[in-house]
Write a structure and sequence with these properties.
Strand order of the largest sheet: 3-2-1-7
Structural class: mainly alpha
Number of domains: 4
Distance between the termini: 106 Å
Radius of gyration: 32 Å
Strand content: under 5%
Oligomer: single chain
CATH topology of the largest domain: Arc Repressor Mutant, subunit A
Helix content: 55-70%
Length: 620
């Protein structure tokens, strides 16, 4: 008859367990294999609680160390044989539940229920520090995967003192730090996550724990440095992976490839990202991990395919993830990703209609309700295009603008005036400027403080739209009587003052001896007019695209460009824009499918805004 959980363990097996726990925390290479052997021996002797404790330790340790799952499958069989009823409430019961919790959260070991966090924390209070920290690694990951931030706060508070105890090993302190870093990062606290990962790296360096150091470095490279410092992320990941080999530590190489994939995604090198994503998946599969463990790597492959334009393949990957038995809070997120991918295909094909706009409104509403503004985190350009489309059609405007600001998204080409621009500049009709601080009014303190040349520079640049102008041309227009070097120095100072006036250093770009307003953060009505007229030129005859573009162009054309200026550059810009609009209006008059009454209405609107535009049309 097997011993019950409450019966004492045979002394020799218990001593072996204690010795092997010490070897595990010292990263002895034979520790996990010997623990697996001990689990089988305990099971054979009928000591089910000890067998479950050894098996749980092996399952947890192979998982947190990102090791190949060499013994996990067999140890899950031991846990399935013992079942949760014999685990007991003591130290060994805590260890058994630690391994079972991780496995159950990845939808294996169905014979064990999901962990009761409060109950297990109560049991861990009577356990040594290392046992509590090991359990914390299992419960912490369960909190992160299931969106349990309040429960994680309780767990973190419980372990804050335990990790400082004298009997807390650097091994379990380090892996608890890595686990908590993932949760902190997932819930929007990257600075705290970085501190925890740095702590794990310091523990590894101080105590010569090579595996802990490599794991901490790889996770820091993945979640922090791939975004903050890509060059450091590559060095860190490559150095960490070099300490292992693909046969023993394939997950290290999977994470190395994942770092390269994340960086390629952020830089828009999507075809390279696809290659790195598939390499990471290959190493993950070689590690023999559970199917659900592959989800983050497959998600990045889907992102890369979507960015590369292989939308159908990306949708296949997203739909496959949707069918995975993910935690409940992730299920709806994956559904949103599927819909965003489909809408990305719509956007690439410019196939928007009432139905697809309704789907866009629906998915953005769901993202708002999920409090998930960071959807498609590695595809900011794709998300920016969808949010731009939403603003153009008054969809979830407040939430969309807040999302754009929180993610610091750059405006895509053709983004509407409703986009939260750093600055809005109007030169058609009255000269008007607005920044995030509000309208810039003549006589306002900001306008008085800024040199008048700053506003003159803004007029010159805005009259060109977003086109770059040689710095010498701009300087000569502003300071015609000064020498070349003096003009350049004056322009340099004036550019700085203009950036201050507009509230951001990124608003004005100087590069390759040319200067222009940044299209990613400054909206200019003259550029918007040019874009709409280009849409007219590209539209087929009698199409709704042509009429809609002309309507938008006339709405933008409030009057001649900088009508109060007779400077040569202003006159040239005024004549250029006037002529382009006249040409588009005349083309519309020649289209058989556009009614004469509508053409007359357009001509009257144009002449009302700019009498010379009406005269120009009459001369053709």
């Amino acid at each position: 008859m097997p011993n019950s959980a409450s019966e004492p363990f045979p002394l020799d097996l218990g001593d072996q367990m204690a010795e092997l726990q010490g070897r595990l925390t010292a990263e002895a290479p034979d520790a996990l294999e010997r623990l697996a052997v001990l689990a089988d021996a305990a099971l054979a002797e009928g000591n089910l609680a000890l067998a479950a404790a050894c098996a749980g330790t092996v399952v947890l340790a192979e998982h947190v160390q990102a090791a190949r799952h060499q013994h996990t499958s067999h140890m899950l069989g031991v846990l399935a044989t013992t079942g949760p009823g014999v685990a007991g409430t003591g130290i060994n019961g805590v260890l058994a539940w630690a391994g079972a919790t991780v496995a159950r959260d990845y939808n294996v070991l169905s014979g064990w229920p999901h962990a009761d966090i409060d109950l297990l924390l109560e049991r861990a209070q009577r356990s040594p520090a290392d046992i509590a920290l090991a359990l914390g690694c299992a419960l912490g990951e369960a909190c992160e995967r299931n969106g349990l931030d309040a429960e994680f706060a309780t767990l973190q508070a419980h372990l804050a003192g335990r990790e400082l105890q004298a009997d807390a090993s650097p091994f379990w302190r380090g892996y608890w730090a890595i686990t908590s870093a993932w949760h902190l990062y997932a819930f929007g606290r990257p600075a705290e996550a970085l501190q925890r990962l740095e702590m794990a790296q310091a523990l590894a360096a101080t105590h010569a724990l090579r595996g802990l150091g490599a794991t901490a470095a790889l996770q820091r490279a993945r979640v922090i440095e791939s975004e903050r410092d890509p060059a450091l992320a590559v060095r860190m990941a490559d150095a960490a992976a070099a300490q292992g080999d693909p046969s023993r530590t394939p997950l290290w190489f999977a994470d190395q490839a994942d770092v390269h994939c994340r960086i390629a995604l952020r830089t828009g090198d999507f075809h390279t990202a696809v290659g790195h994503a598939r390499r990471s998946i290959g190493f993950v599969q070689a590690a023999g991990v559970w199917p659900d463990y592959q989800a983050p790597y497959r998600l990045n492959e889907a992102y890369a395919l979507l960015g590369a334009g292989s939308v159908d393949e990306a949708l296949d990957r997203f739909n496959a993830l949707k069918e995975t038995a993910l935690p409940a809070y992730l299920v709806e997120r994956v559904r949103c990703l599927v819909d965003l991918a489909a809408l990305s295909r719509t956007d690439l094909r410019d196939d928007w209609d009432e139905s697809t706009l309704a789907r866009l409104a629906d998915v953005l509403r769901r993202l708002r309700e999920l409090e998930w503004p960071s959807a498609l985190p590695l595809l900011p350009r794709t998300m920016a295009r969808l949010l731009s489309r939403a603003l153009a059609h008054d969809i979830e405007v407040e939430w969309v603008c807040a999302t754009i600001r929180s993610r610091h998204l750059a405006a895509p080409h053709g983004a509407p005036q409703a986009w939260p621009w750093a600055a809005v500049v109007c030169v058609l009709g009255d000269f008007q400027v607005s920044t995030t601080a509000g309208p810039l009014r003549a006589g306002a303190r900001g306008a008085r403080k800024a040199a008048s040349k700053s506003l003159d520079l803004l007029r010159i640049l805005a009259a060109q739209g977003h086109d770059a102008t040689p710095v010498d041309v701009v300087a000569e227009a502003l300071w015609p009587g000064d020498g070349r070097e003096g003009r350049r120095k004056a322009l340099e100072i004036t550019v700085t003052r203009l950036r201050d006036l507009l509230g951001s250093d990124s608003t004005v770009i100087v590069s390759d001896r040319r200067v222009h307003l940044n299209p990613q953060c400054v909206w200019i009505d003259a550029q918007a007019l040019i874009d709409r007229l280009c849409d007219c030129d590209a539209a087929t005859a009698n199409s709704s695209v042509l009429t809609n573009a002309l309507e938008a162009a006339l709405a933008l054309y409030r009057g001649p460009c900088l009508a109060d200026s007779q400077e040569p550059w202003a006159c040239a810009a005024r004549d250029r824009l006037r002529s382009r609009l006249a040409a588009s209006l005349l083309r519309a008059q020649r289209e058989a499918g556009i009614s004469p009454s509508r053409c007359r209405e357009w001509a009257l609107r144009a002449a009302a805004a700019d009498p010379l535009l009406g005269n120009l049309m009459d001369t053709f």
